[in-house]
Amino acid sequence: MARVRISSPLLVFLICTVLAIAVSHAARVQKHGEGEETRRKLLNNGLGHSPQMGWNSYNHFPCKLNDKLIRETADAMVSSGLSALGYEYINLDDCWAELNRDSKGNLVPKASFFPYGIKALADYVHSKGLKIGIYGDAGTQTCAKTMPGSLGFEEQDANTFASWGIDYLKYDNCHNKGVNPQERYSKMGKALLKTGRPIFYSLCEWGQDNPATWAPSIGNSWRTTGDIKDTWDSMTGRADQNNKWASYAGPGGWNDPDMLEVGNGGMSKEEYRSHFSIWALAKAPLILGCDLRSIDNDTFEILGNKEVIAVNQDTLGVQGKKVKKNGDLEVWAGPLSGKRVAVILWNRGDSKATIAAQWSDIGLKSSAAVDARDLWEHTTTHTVKHKIEATLESHACKMYILTPQ
Ligand code: GLA
User: Fold this and answer.
1) Which end of the chain has the smaller Cβ count within 10 Å, N or C?
2) Angstrom distance (rounded) from CA 182 to CA 383
3) Atom number of ligand 1 nearest to Cα 95
4) pTM of the predicted model over 0.85
5) pLDDT digit string, tens, across residues 235-259
6) Which residue from 271, 336, 288, 333 is spatially nearest to 310, judged by alpha carbons?
7) Could you tell me which residue ranges the Alpha galactosidase C-terminal domain spans (predicted)?
């Protein structure tokens, strides 16, 4: 047998290299471990195992919220049947507080909007079997400039929210004085944990400092985009911006391309159906933004589609993404529990077109035969092989779950 001779300088070099690799690996494990530790604490609060579902006042009622509206919205969430489908949070956005803190530095509910205070409102929302969310800002003032931000008041405000029975905080990014976002957002995250009350933490940093890369250890969701508007261009733009962060989402923390505009009137029924389908597949928060008190049948048919909601809430928790693009014709897909695959065929162009997803595009074996469930038609086609294909009107989509036989 040939013997390999190693000179002593070479031996020293090899030992040093091995040691350096081991030390850097240990440092990485420790760093990752700390993040995981904070994340497990959030998970132990039972929050964010699947994307949050609920309603927020901002898209339909910017700065026009009040006690009556919130109570009526909670009533409508239950009476419409939406709460039974999983929508649980009723969230107040900007403008709920007075411009100034009280003499002890506490936030004060705006008396003309909330004459009975927030605690009484929270009790009412809870009595309907729902949860209540509130809005704050990681700066000196909120975006509408009508109330104070929480920068420097994190513990005090977190304690106030907990004492009122708040279940969810959306934390905005205006007037932040240039203070590092990780510092500002983690301060409030720690303050919320310290209250001992499970409070879902929704970071609204607009994706400016790539929060997907640092927010998973701090909160349950993080905005990846600026504000959505009720238009096709705004909605599709947000879907694309959010898509690139797909690998960072998972149980406990989700990418947030902003709230839903379905039902607000600025898009067609097909466009809203696409909006809801893509948000569901991308494991985005399903936060409704329309007036629930006057929801029409078309809107209910979209927001109340149990099969689409089930894709969003699937236990595997993997964000589906764009897997194929041919001009304006796109295929979006992602894995689901039970070896199933969710697929969207989406015509973003101006004219009718045929779109196909080959099995190789969406992670299925070429030999697979699947049951294809059409989630909008509520029909199943058996033993589909090689590809799934559809002809779609402008801005329309098809959404399927494929189950290998
Ligand atoms: C920012 C947020 C919005 C909304 C408004 C309220 O623009 O991104 O979602 O909360 O502030 O003023």
Assistant:
1) N
2) 50
3) 12
4) yes
5) 999 999 999 999 999 999 999 999 9
6) 336
7) 327-402
Contact 80, 300 (CB under 8 A): yes
Ligand 1 centroid distance, CA of 359 (Å)? 41
- Which atom of ligand 1 lies at the shortest distance from residue 259's CA? 9
Q: Name the residue among 331, 342, 258 with its Cα closest to residue 307.
A: 342
pLDDT category at 30 given cuts 50, 70, 90 is very low
Residues annotated as catalytic (active site), given as ranges: 172, 227
**286 close to 312: Cβ distance less than 8 angstroms:** yes
Residue 299, class by beta-carbon neighbours within 10 Å (0-12 exposed, 13-18 middle, 19+ buried)?
buried
As a whole number of angstroms, the distance between CA 52 and CA 58 comes to 17
- The residue whose C-alpha atom lies closest to atom 11 belonging to ligand 1 is 143
94 lines ligand 1 (CB under 6 A): yes
Counting from 1 in the atom list of ligand 1, the atom nearest the Cα of 144 is: 12
Cα–Cα distance for residue pair 234/401, rounded to 1 Å = 27
